[in-house]
Give the backbone structure.
Amino acid sequence: MSDKSSFAVTPVCSICIANYNGAEVIEDCLNSAFTQDCDFSFEVIVHDDASTDGSERIVRDRYPSVRLITSEGNVGFCVSNNRMALAAHGKYILLLNNDATLLPDALRTLHEEAIKSNPAILSLPQYDAHTGKLVDIGSLSDPFLNPIPNLDTKRRSVAMVSGACLWIPRMMWEELGGFPAWFHTVAEDTYLSFMARLRGYPVEAIARSGFK
């Protein structure tokens, strides 16, 4: 397995994976991260949120290059990601769910878009892991701010993207203040996307590569 993560150089990207009881999925997630087809360095950070299924041990024993943060108590998705972002060294942060897997060119695609445009929140098409069916390319919203899946490959600007695979410059994350801790695990990606748009930052979904 190739491993482009390194502490010898400052990583371009910090992949942040919030894990809670992910023993059945965390290896697929990590393997998809460490086998990315890209020519830049990245680090992988996992925050284990007091798992009880042995998934923390899987990460510790089988993925020694992962920067593992462990929590004594369950603090939720928002705090988990805030802690990883605080520890991140990369210019960019990619938030990745523990049950998500990246297609091989995902990091390269996100980075290519990031360096040729103004600071933005970016994401990729999401596919159903079992059927391969397209789920969304980001989401639009109705008047009540409910997400409506975007399936238009020609539409780039969206209202929000999923926190399952959310790319953001670290400086923007810090400016926006990350996730409000009191959200715990609900609608935090919607909040961050809308906050970015209110500050004048684009929220975009790139209609190639993807994640499941």
Remarks:
- The first strand starts at residue 13 and ends at 19.
- Helices lie at 26-34, 55-62, 77-87, 106-115, 170-176, 188-198.
